[in-house]
């Protein structure tokens, strides 16, 4: 098969970005209906109707198409979308999208349509007849009388009205004002807005690139003159958010997968382009070269993920490969095209400072205003840029409604830009549950398992002294008579690849426990077969001894786990997770510690190791570096050690700790 043009794009210039957008638009012609209003990207279903799903396929590519038109470029297929807008809003048409109802998916798709009228009305509104304009106006305006979820969806109604206003059509200023007022109540501080009602912490990519920050920035650009005070407020929020959000990306361009809707893929980086569109005065040390680099490196990384496309060139549901296990019940085959938000800066000409700027490297070292480890109190994350990747230590978030694999998307202890996360493929055994970066507990002999899904309390505390580190603490109860207090400790400066977890368990029932490290590719880079015992002739493989386990993969790097519990050692093993459970690697294994406990109180201390493989590095030389990193001393705040009764104190090397534990066992 010929490679998809997107996968050969260098992503260096505006012209490259334009060609990438076109390469995503072109394949949609083959699945577009006769009148253009319906685009059927696949056959899987959603909780809403099929007509709305095919409206998604029509509307979401408009984020890119409208932007390129607004920037003065021409796309030969634009006329298909103009015809589709006419047919989709005509009640007499066979392709009519249907009238709006309360909490209707059509409200979501009204947003990119409103944006299109706002920025590219010359191509999408001006050619229409009076009757056609009336149909478009009627279809969009009717959402003003309907009930909407009190979430980021309110922005969708605002942009539908802004598009109508721009075209001189009937719109509702009162709805815009009321919705803005509600949206402003979501703000929590330091640039972060919650997505949803009080009582829940949900601050994922919807707080930034998928919805709230991006749409606030577009509002600043296109409507801020109507309310300069609010525009200045949003601009300042974006500056604060940028200095946090930069820590969700790594030097290679990867973003940390966290939360829901990750099938939107490179929309994760859309915030950086929206900053340019809104022409925000960047806070130091960010420059247009840095911001441009953050967006384009992310696009380059995605261009290497060849399996994101179906054979017909259309995006699939999934992350780095097609995967329905990780999807939500609102993901139609057209849903992935929310990724077209990444093309917003095509609305800017070649002479804009964003496109003129020379790409700068990721802002690290002296160029960044905050340290490589940073506690973010609002999303309850500790961001870590050490050990060759960016990862989050996470606590306290959950979706505000029941969601498939919600605990996996929000409740894990760690999320990595290099290793991705796993979701359950079933609920009958541990292999199907795939609990990477989780402590799973079972009361029925391992038939079913519970993990941290919601917490009773969560907070970040900065420990100061000889070792200064933020520590993330959460309290959670898988059952009413089982309480687990978890401390998440980021890597100390001298041990960049290790982080430590402490679990204080009080249980009134007997339990099986299983704690996983990062999931990692479990197949050989040489022949694709399952990894054998380490080391094989290619210096890959799996090793599990009594209390530690690790996996060495040329494709992915090294992931490992070690038990440092003061009471007794858990048994180490490597779990072969179900295929397609991980969102980045279809075949993974998980280093794991397991133990059976009786009613009582326990302290589990876990050291977790992760070091991604580095491209263009000699493997045998790289092997020496990971071994050295494995054996490095790792430390922790003394004050924390005082809080955790029975934990061995003092800065000991990993090997010394294991020897001490071995001696304790022998005695």
From TrEMBL:
It comes from Coniosporium apollinis (strain CBS 100218). This is DUF2264 domain-containing protein. PANTHER family: LINALOOL DEHYDRATASE_ISOMERASE DOMAIN-CONTAINING PROTEIN. Residues 13-361, 372-641 form the DUF2264 domain. InterPro entries: DUF2264_C, DUF2264_N, UCP014753.
């Amino acid at each position: 098969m010929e490679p998809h043009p997107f996968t050969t794009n260098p992503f260096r210039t505006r012209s490259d970005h334009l060609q990438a957008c076109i390469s995503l638009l072109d394949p949609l012609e083959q699945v577009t209906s006769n009148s253009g209003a319906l685009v059927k990207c696949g056959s899987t279903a959603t909780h809403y109707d099929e007509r709305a799903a095919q409206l998604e396929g029509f509307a979401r590519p408009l984020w890119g198409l409208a932007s390129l038109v607004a920037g003065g470029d021409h796309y030969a297929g634009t006329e298909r979308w103009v015809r589709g807008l006419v047919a989709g809003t005509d009640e007499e048409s066979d392709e009519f999208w249907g009238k709006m109802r309360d909490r209707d998916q059509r409200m979501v798709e009204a947003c990119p349509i409103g944006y299109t009228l706002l920025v590219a009305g010359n191509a999408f509104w001006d050619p229409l007849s009076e009757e056609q304009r009336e149909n478009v106006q009627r279809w969009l305006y009717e959402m003003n009388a309907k009930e909407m979820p009190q979430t980021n969806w309110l922005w969708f109604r605002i942009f539908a009205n802004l598009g109508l206003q721009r075209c001189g059509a009937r719109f509702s200023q009162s709805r815009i004002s009321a919705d803005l007022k509600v949206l402003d109540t979501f703000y929590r501080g330091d640039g972060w807005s919650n997505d949803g009602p009080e009582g829940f912490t949900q601050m994922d990519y919807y707080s930034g690139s998928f919805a709230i920050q991006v749409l606030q920035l577009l509002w600043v650009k296109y409507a801020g003159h109507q309310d300069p005070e609010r525009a200045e407020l949003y601009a300042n929020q974006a500056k604060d958010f940028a200095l946090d959000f930069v820590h969700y990306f790594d030097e290679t361009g990867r973003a940390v997968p966290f939360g829901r809707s990750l099938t939107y893929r490179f929309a994760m980086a859309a915030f950086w382009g929206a900053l340019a569109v809104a022409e925000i005065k960047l806070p130091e040390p960010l420059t247009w070269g840095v911001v441009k680099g953050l967006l384009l490196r992310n696009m380059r990384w995605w261009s290497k993920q060849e399996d994101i496309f179906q054979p017909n060139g259309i995006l699939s549901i999934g992350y780095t490969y097609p995967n329905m296990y990780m999807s939500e019940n609102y993901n139609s085959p057209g849903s992935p095209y929310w990724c077209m938000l990444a093309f917003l800066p095509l609305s800017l000409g070649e002479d804009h400072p964003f496109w003129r700027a020379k790409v700068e490297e990721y802002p690290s070292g002296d160029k960044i205003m905050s340290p490589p480890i940073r506690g973010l109190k609002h999303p309850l994350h500790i961001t870590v840029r050490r050990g060759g990747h960016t990862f989050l230590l996470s606590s306290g978030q959950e979706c505000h409604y029941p969601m498939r694999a919600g605990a996996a998307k929000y409740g894990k202890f760690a999320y990595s830009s290099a290793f991705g996360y796993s979701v359950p493929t079933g609920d009958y055994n541990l292999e199907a549950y795939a609990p990477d970066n989780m402590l799973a507990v079972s009361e029925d002999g391992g038939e079913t398992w519970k993990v941290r899904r919601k917490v009773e309390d969560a907070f970040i505390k900065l420990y100061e002294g000889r070792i200064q580190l933020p520590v993330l603490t959460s309290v959670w109860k898988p059952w009413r008579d089982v309480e687990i207090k978890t401390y998440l400790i980021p890597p100390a400066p001298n041990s960049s690849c290790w982080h430590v977890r402490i679990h204080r368990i009080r249980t009134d029932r007997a339990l099986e426990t299983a704690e996983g490290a990062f999931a990692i590719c479990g197949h050989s880079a040489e022949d694709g077969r399952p990894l054998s015992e380490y080391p094989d002739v290619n210096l890959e493989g799996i090793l599990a001894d009594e209390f530690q386990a690790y996996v060495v993969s040329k494709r992915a790097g090294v992931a490992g786990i070690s038990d440092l519990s003061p009471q007794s050692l858990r048994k180490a093993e490597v779990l072969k997770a179900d295929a397609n459970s991980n969102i980045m690697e279809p075949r993974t294994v998980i280093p794991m510690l397991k133990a059976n406990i009786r009613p009582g109180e326990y302290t589990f201390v876990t050291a977790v190791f992760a070091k991604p493989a580095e491209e263009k590095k000699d493997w045998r030389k790289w092997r020496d570096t990971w071994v050295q990193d494995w054996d490095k001393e790792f430390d922790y705040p003394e004050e924390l050690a005082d809080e955790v009764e029975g934990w061995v104190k003092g800065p000991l090397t990993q090997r010394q700790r294991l020897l001490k534990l071995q001696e304790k066992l022998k005695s």
